[in-house]
Design a protein that fits this description.
Layout (H helix, E strand, L loop, with lengths): L1 E5 L4 H12 L3 E6 L12 E4 L14 E6 L5 H11 L3 E7 L40 H15 L4 E6 L2 E2 L7 H11 L2 E5 L5 E2 L2 E2 H14 L3 E5 L6 E2 H12 L4 E5 L1 H6 L25 H5 L7 H17 L20 H15 L1
Parallel strand pairs: 1-2, 1-4, 2-3, 4-5, 5-6, 6-11, 7-10, 8-13
Antiparallel strand pairs: 9-12
Helix pairs in contact: 1-5, 2-3, 4-6, 4-9, 6-9
Length: 346
């Protein structure tokens, strides 16, 4: 196949490009040339900023276009206009944040499926991407994609993407924390659900759908079987550092202490918000999604982090990412919280 990847040198796009080339596909990457400029010499590189001049896309035909970098609908419409009549399938990477109600109270026993109500923006012309507008803007991107590539559009709605080359640090923080050992603050109820997907598994599914020219909308997260925060942290301990000790701390205590879920303690959400980790992925599983063992993701992420920490050459792609808010508790704050919890529980 001939595949065009919009963004192909960072995280998900990087895994897509690597796997597509390994499978023998002809790959064109459209990117700004800022991240991983030496990657994938065997691919065709077209340098452009999708918010500027897109004449780099004026020639060529592709069986599938996988768009990993659209955040506002204008960007999708511009690509559709440039590529009209010259592509087979178009895949938009969206997000599960498009759903209007992801609190536990709004999620039934089967989880949120692709038919659930979507977010709306008070100002549909807004383009500033914030925590409040991100999901609504992705909804508008989806609408623009379905209009621009009618009948040939696949929309994937990933949950939290994890694994090597992750620029967010969320999953990676737990890997590093458990590797450091000692007493690890484990948040809330161990039975609280969690979901995430190794970006390599998401990429493999997307390439499979490119081969099949699949259209439609699919939630794209994992694992295939339900997982809890307890199961995640126990697997991290068993895989990375069996000497580490998990100390479970009450959810209310953490919230009252001002601990921010998702940022101070990544991946974890309180039970009232855990609908985000209860997404129905039956459609993706039925079309070939396969999720690798959790231990493999943990070990591979640890190896990548360790290699990045000791490298004398330029760091992996995550280091070239735009500045992001820091994630994870500082060791001093974690120790103070553990001490306060122990005193309260005595």
């Amino acid at each position: 196949m001939k595949i065009l990847i919009l963004g192909g040198t960072r995280f998900l796009g990087r895994h897509l490009a690597e796997q597509a080339l390994a499978q023998g596909h002809s790959v064109t990457l459209l990117h700004r040339g800022r991240s991983g400029p030496g990657l994938f010499a065997q691919a065709e590189h077209r340098i452009a900023d999708r918010d500027g001049d897109l004449s780099a896309l004026d020639t060529g035909e592709w069986d599938s276009v996988i768009d990993t970098s659209a955040y506002v609908p204008r960007q999708v419409r511009a690509v559709a206009a440039r590529l009209a009549g010259r592509v087979g399938q178009y895949q938009l990477v969206s997000t599960i944040s498009v759903y209007a109600d992801m609190d536990s109270g709004g999620v039934d026993a089967g989880g949120v499926d692709e038919s659930a109500p979507l977010q709306t923006l008070a100002d549909p012309t807004a383009e500033a991407v914030t925590g409040e507008t991100y999901g609504g803007l992705k909804v508008l991107c989806e609408q623009a994609a379905m209009e621009g590539f009618a009948g040939r559009c696949l929309i994937s709605r990933p949950g939290l993407l994890v694994g090597p080359h992750d620029p967010t640090g969320r999953f990676s923080w737990w890997v590093q924390r458990v590797q450091r050992g000692g007493t690890v603050l484990a948040p809330g109820d161990p039975a609280t659900p969690v979901q995430f997907i190794d970006a390599r598994d998401a990429a493999a599914w997307q390439l499979l759908q490119a081969e099949h020219q699949t259209a439609g909308t699919f939630n794209l997260t994992g694992p295939a079987r339900p997982l809890t925060i307890g199961g995640l942290l126990q697997a991290a301990r068993d895989t990375l550092n069996p000497a580490a000790q998990l100390r479970w701390v009450d959810e209310k205590f953490l919230l009252d202490a001002g601990v921010a879920p998702w940022s101070d303690l990544p991946v974890w959400l309180p039970q009232a918000q855990a609908g985000l980790h209860q997404t129905n992925i039956a459609r993706a599983l039925a079309t070939g999604l396969q999720c690798r063992p959790l231990a493999a993701t943990l070990d591979d992420t640890a190896q990548w982090l360790n290699a990045a920490a000791t490298a004398t050459a330029p760091a992996p792609a995550a280091a070239a990412s735009p500045a992001r808010p820091a994630v994870g508790l500082a060791p001093e704050r974690e120790a103070a919280l553990l001490q306060a919890w122990q005193a309260q529980s005595a």
